[in-house]
Amino acid sequence: MYTLGVTVPQTLLGLLEREPSHGYDLKKDYDRFFGRGRPLPYGQVYATLGRLSRDGKVEPGPVEPGEGPDRKRYAITELGREEFEAWLTTAIEPEPHLQTVLFTKVVLAVMLGRSASNYLDLQRAAHLQRMRALTEAKRTDNLVDRLLADHGLFHLEADLRWIDITAARLPLLAQEIA
Amino acid sequence: MTYLPELTDIAGDVIVAARNVVYAFGETQALRGANMEVGRGEVLAVMGPSGSGKSTMLHCLAGILTPQAGEVMFDGQRLDTMSENERSALRRDRFGFVFQFGQLVPELTALENVALPLLLGGAKRSEALERAGTWFSRLQIQGLEGRRSGELSGGQAQRVAVARAFVTRPSVLFADEPTGSLDSLTGELVMDLVVGLAKEDGTTVVVVTHEPRVAAYAQREVVVRDGVVTSRWRAAGKRSPGS
Prior knowledge:
The complex is a heterodimer.
Chain A: H1 8-18, E1 21-22, H2 23-35, H3 42-54, E2 58-60, E3 73-76, H4 78-88, H5 97-111, H6 116-137, H7 143-177
Antiparallel strand pairs in A: 1-3, 2-3
Chain B: E1 14-25, E2 28-39, E3 43-47, H1 54-61, E4 69-74, E5 77-78, H2 84-93, E6 95-98, H3 110-120, H4 125-138, H5 154-166, E7 172-176, H6 184-201, E8 204-208, H7 212-215, E9 220-225, E10 228-230
Parallel strand pairs in B: 3-8, 3-9, 6-7, 7-8
Antiparallel strand pairs in B: 1-2, 1-4, 4-5, 9-10
Helix pairs in contact in B: 3-4, 3-5, 5-6
């Protein structure tokens, strides 16, 4: 599945804004909504909660009777709430992540007299294969999964549009680089 | 990290094929020796930029255009050497068509539009209308049977067009930019229905599209560029046969 680039501390703060929770419940909710096949290790949950607690963004409750590490319920503090709010209301930097790699390969191929168009065909096939898998994954009643698949599909589509327009402009690019 | 897409082989036998097909509109060469094969029951996307020849390819495969050179095969028969009457019967009985703009007959109701291919095939009117009526629920447009195309939204009209294409239970459905005039959500609904119905009925689908999200509904894609079908690449850099 497509994975979200969400940052763990902010996500845990957001989950804690709903209600104070144990590490176990936070992990369970994280995996359910954001994990997408990459479960959050317990170690990372407790390490993150430890840092958030040290920085005054969450507050551990009293140790509850029982065994194991999960004996504290964590609550978000005012500072944590402010940080989460700031994060949630800030746009992230649009990242032309894949294009930089694609772009480098295309320019190098043209520069070195190799077939950039073969490379673009290969990349198009790879993108479409991924899009097929995501389209198949959308055949589910789970709206969260469908929305995530859509997110991936639209991003891959944007790359494909770039691939197509670049394929059409290869002769011009060759002239410019030569 | 290197990532190589898998090559999808054609499943089952070939139902439609083009071999070295050449087609020119006057001085303009649309197809210059194009080859492709479609497996029985397969959903295949034909992609390519505007003017690449992808729609001309579809029209040649469907017997709408006769190539000036090369061969078109359907179910083991030469399609390009058939008489116009034979091809016309084939288009009516074995093929279904969906175009970008539904192209419904505006004077007819939605129900009559869906029944049209059956009526042209010689079915009795009452029987044709009854069979046509069963498709409205399958396409989630029940209640719209009596409307004319001017009284339908774009998405509704396109679903009527899909019903019309499927009503004869064709062997092959040819779709040319079927979602081109629809918004994303409606386009998705139409593609879900087309692919779902094709799967249920075992219909082969050839869909021409420049939209990757539409192509992603297909099991395989070919790309037409400058009048030829470009090959896909194997991991070792060898050209794959047949695509």
